[in-house]
Amino acid sequence: MSDVSNSGPNLDPNLVTADEGQPSEHAGHFVEIKNLRKSFHDLVVLDQLNLDIAKGEILSLIGSSGSGKSTLLRCIAQLEVPDAGVIAIDGEVQGLIEKKGKLYQAPKKVIRAQQAEVGMVFQNFNLFPHMTALENIIEAPIHVRGLSPDEAKRVAMEWLSIVGLADNKDSYPIELSGGMQQRVAIARAFAMDPKLILFDEPTSALDPELVGEVLDVIEKSTKSGVTAVIATHEIAFAHEISTHIAFLSGGAITEYGTPEQVIDNPQEERTREFLRRITARNDSASKKN
Q1: DSSP secondary structure letters along the chain
Q2: What is the pLDDT along the chain (289 residues), one digit of tens a residue?
Q3: What is the C-alpha separation between 118 and 89, in angstroms, rounded?
Q4: Taking the model in full, what pTM does it have?
Q5: Domains and CATH numbers, the chain
């Protein structure tokens, strides 16, 4: 077994090897995650997680709060450094380089370039408060992608039109509703033309009446053929939009399949119990409304 350099992330040499750093020969695996492990102090959040995602797939991650959904997305986006394991996107290992049979943390320049290929929509929008909707969207395409201001504005206006906010291009975040801010955040992510886009509970911070407009925009945006991973508690939405569903429990994927398999006919008791709780909660909310 090859060694792993301790320079950079605290990688476990028993779990990450140079062999694991090579994408598999299986055709169609656009995203490959092998033996991913992440802990915070003594709390293990991801535990030897494995996952393959095909190009153009829309994968929804479901599971209770604390099951590891957000941490998995943050590891894919290189916002968190895994303790062990390997993530490859489009054949390129993320955050690591191999030298003479050892894995080392990649230079910051390489990591930044890889991060530019992965768009992420956060729970709390993360818009710059001092910038207009248009300025929020053009910032990264100009300074990261190297687009000219005119080209960046053209792309930004295309996406503002797609999310229904072309008339609000000069509005500041404080002047927009939560749903509108999240739609700007979606436009900002897509304006970078990413290889992969991640949604981290994109409706969790919204008032119930604003959820539908954001889900509609996500559905419209993902019809372009982009590969997407969505962490969500919106089960009906996940059923409608997803090609596959992964149920996370205890930091691992314990059930995986099509929406019909995982949501309509779950095989694992933990999945069934989770879906019963979600259904009961939604029924209770409907009665209150």
Answers
A1: ---B--SSS---TTT--TTTTSPPS-TTEEEEEEEEEEEETTEEEEEEEEEEEETT-EEEEE--TTSSHHHHHHHHTTSS--SEEEEEETTEESSEEEETTEEEEPPHHHHHHHHTTEEEE-TT----TTS-HHHHHHHHHHHTS---HHHHHHHHHHHHHHTT-GGGTT--GGGS-HHHHHHHHHHHHHHT--SEEEEESTTTTS-HHHHHHHHHHHHHHGGG--EEEEE-S-HHHHHHH-SEEEEEETTEEEEEE-HIIIIIS--SHHHHHHHHHHHHHHHHHHHH-
A2: 233 333 333 444 334 444 455 555 444 589 999 999 999 999 999 999 999 999 999 999 999 999 999 999 999 999 999 999 999 999 999 999 988 888 889 999 999 999 999 999 999 999 999 999 999 999 999 999 999 999 999 999 999 999 999 999 999 999 999 999 999 999 999 999 999 999 999 998 888 888 999 999 999 898 888 999 999 999 999 999 999 999 999 999 999 999 999 999 999 999 999 999 988 887 666 566 5
A3: 9
A4: 0.87
A5: 59-81+107-288 (3.40.50.300)
Q: What residue type is assigned to position 182 of the chain?
A: Q
